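Re: the request from the purification team.
They wanted to know what the chain is likely to look like in 3D before they choose a buffer screen. I agreed to run a prediction and write the result into the notebook, where they can find it.
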Amino acid sequence: MFACPTCSFKNHEGALFCESCGAYFHTGGTLATDVLKAEQTSKPRPSGFPTPAAGAAEEKLSLVLISEGDGHRFVVQPRGQTALIGRNDRKAKVFVDVDPTGESGQGYGVSRRHARVHYLNGIYLLEDLESLNGTYLNERKLRPYLPEVLHDGDQVKLGDLTLKVSLEGKV
């Protein structure tokens, strides 16, 4: 373990960045960027995010998360750019946009600040916020703070609460 020179956080040996403040640990030698020749460059590849179809901007779909338990519907409108999913907690002054506590959220292991949905260029993205019990998309655990694209029919699990994704109608 060694201390970060910026914030004094104890990091593991061999770390390149501080786990606390993100400072880069210079490992010696000069840092330089060499110019690549044309034959060394790669062809552009898709970013992994689907490109919205023509007219998609006008056809804004609402994201609906449907509880597989009782069919309760949680609607996320595309008007805002982000929506926080979790549990409202008046004592801790945490207020979320989508609150599944009516579904016994705490009993299902839903964190107060569990996940976030982003709406960007006609696409909904789901991001885990380092929730204690994890966020799963189609039975695959999401890495914290790495948004994934949501599609109609996807399955989202917040802890043990299972929700089905539905993209519905014009707003």
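For the purification team: The chain has a mean pLDDT of 81.
Please add any questions underneath this entry.
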